[in-house]
Amino acid sequence: MAHVLLAGAAHEMLALARDLGHTVAAVADPVLDKRDWRGVPAFCDDTEACERVACDGVVLAIDSPTARARVQAFYEERGLAALDLVAVALGEGTTHGTGLVVQHGGVVSVDCALGRGVRLNMRAVVMHDVALGDHATIAPGAVVLGRARLGARAYIGANATILPRVSIGDDCTVGAGAVVTRDVPAGATVKGVPAR
What we know:
Number of helices: 3
Strand order of the largest sheet: 6-8-11-14-17-20-22
Distance between the termini: 45 Å
Order of helices and strands: EHEEEHEHEEEEEEEEEEEEEEEEE
Radius of gyration: 16 Å
């Protein structure tokens, strides 16, 4: 298994990496104010971590889609690839870019197209023929139904539902518990039932 650097101090990512048999070499997160985080060397600076840690790649353990995109670019510019951390089997015909994270209890159905740096949290569900743009985030318990389309850096809040064939634009935020019944333009924030 891989020797990985966690970019972001996401507690569940440390556990998931270990569950999947990886060795966590270090964690890098600007909010860390100590040199040891849960028994792992910690750095508050990505540059220092990149220079001091020998590893096979980086796991994008950052919830914010915009920050995750920025951090993935930072490490790739320095020759460190984003690694996948996937706790479930992906459906037949599903494709994905580098840096995919799917936590325990997540579901990815058949014939989906997942971009780079996509993150599905615990119990997130992505049904058949869904397309998720680069660095999209599906929060815990959220459901994206068949043939929906999410743009780059879209964030779907906890327990939200995206109905079939709905398109969510780039840089959108869908509030927790929302039910999205119609297309959402780029940059918009929607919430409620139905989402507005």
